[in-house]
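README: folding subset

This subset contains proteins for which both the sequence and a predicted C-alpha cell string are available. Records are stored as plain text. Below is the entry for TRAP transporter large permease subunit (447 residues), shown exactly as it appears on disk.
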Amino acid sequence: MGIAALVVFIAVTVIMNTALKREISESLVVALIATALLGGTHAPAMLGKAVFGAAQSEVTFAGMAFVFMGIVVQSTGLIDRLIEILNSIFGRLRGGAAYVSTLGSAMIGLIAGSTAGNSATVGSVTIPWMKRAGWSSERAATLVAGNSGLGVALPPNSTMFIILALPAATGASASSVYVALACGGAYAVLYRLAVVFLWTRTDKIAATPREDLKSFAQAMKEGWRSPSIFLGIIIPVILTIGPVAGYLTSQLGKEAVKSISIIVWVPILITLIALLEGAKHIRNNNEHFRIQLKQDAHQFATVGISLFAALAAAKIMEELGVGPQLSGLLDSMSLPRWLMLIVVGVLAVLVATPLSSTATAAAIGAPAMAALIAVGLDPTVAIVAILLCTSTEGASPPVGAPIYLSAAMADANPPKMFVPLIVYFVLPMIALSWLIGMGWLPIYVAQ
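--- output ---
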C-alpha cells in the first residue's frame, strides 16, 4: 500500500491546493488523513503514532523557530540595511540591480525557505529598480521568480528538515547537511550571477545612475552592524564541524558536541542578533514592529501545520512501505548512477511543480533517498541533490506562485516567462544536482 499512499497523498494535496484553491497547510492535513485511511483498521493507531512522532521531532521546533526568526529579521529592517550595502557595491556595475536582486534572494533564502515570500520580499524592492535600469518587465519578473528557489537551495529550510527526519536519512547529520547544502547552494547562486552577467550583455543593460545609489561609506555607516547576522550561522557551524569541534569533542566528549543542533541554534542566535542590531529601529518604530509581527503571525500556522502534517504523512507512508516499494521498482530498472540521478531529479521536479517543496519531500523523499543511496551516493550528497531539484518549485510553470507574484509586480505576461524559466532555472538545477551527485562538482561533507 506504500505506493498507493504516495499517489493518494500527492493527488489529494494537488486537488485541494490547486483545484479547490485551499491553503497548502489545510491541503496537507486532509492529505494526511486520507493517507492514514489506507491503513484500514490500523489507521487510527498509525495516525496517532505519526502525529506523536511529528510533534516530538526537533525539526518541528526548528521550522517554527525559523519562521519567527524571519519575521524578526525583516521587521527590524536588518535585511534592508544589508541589501543597501550590497547595492552600494554592485549598483555601480552594469546590471547591478539584478546582481543585488540575486544576492538579496540568497540572503532571504538563508533565513526563510518560502519561495513566494522570497519573491515578494525581494521583488517589491528590486523589480521596480530593475525596470528603471532598463530591464524588460518579463526579464525582471523571470529573474525574481527563478531566484525564489534559493530558499530551498540554501540552508536552512523546512524541506531539508523533513528529509532529515526520514529513516532513509539516518546516515546524514543535520550539521553535515547544513554545510554541504551551503556548498551546493553557493553553486546555485554563482550560476544565477552568471545568468545575470549573460542577460546584462544580451539585453544591453547600463549601470545604475549614481543619483540612485548610496555610497559604500554611507551604507556602512547606516548598516555596519547588519553583517553580524552571519555570526548566527558561523558560530554553531564552528562548534560542530572542524578543528574547534574536534577540540571540544576531546574535552567534553562526542555526545556533548553532538547535542549542539545547528537547526535549533541558528534561528535562536540570528533572532537575538537581529533584536540587538535592530533595537534602535524597534524603539523608534515600536508600533510598526508590533503590527508587522501581527501581520506575519499567520506564517506560524502555514509553516507549522504544513511541516507537522508533512512529517506525519511521511511517517505513515514509510510504515506502509513506500520506500522499499519504490526503491524496489527503481532497483528493478538496474540503472547506473548517472541515469538514476537524472530519473530522481526529473521526478522531483515534476512532483514539485504542482506541490510545494515541503510536500514533495514528504511524498518522494524516502524513495528518492533510498534509490540514490543504492547507487552509491553518500546520504548527505543525496539530500543535497534532491533539495536542488525541489528548489525549482517556484520557477516551474505553470503552477509556481512566485511566477505570478513576480509578474504582477512587474506588470509582465506570465506565459512569456515560462520558456526562459525552464531553460535558465529548471533544467540547470537538474544539471547542477547531477554534477554534484556524480562528484564532478565538489561539496564538503563532514564525517
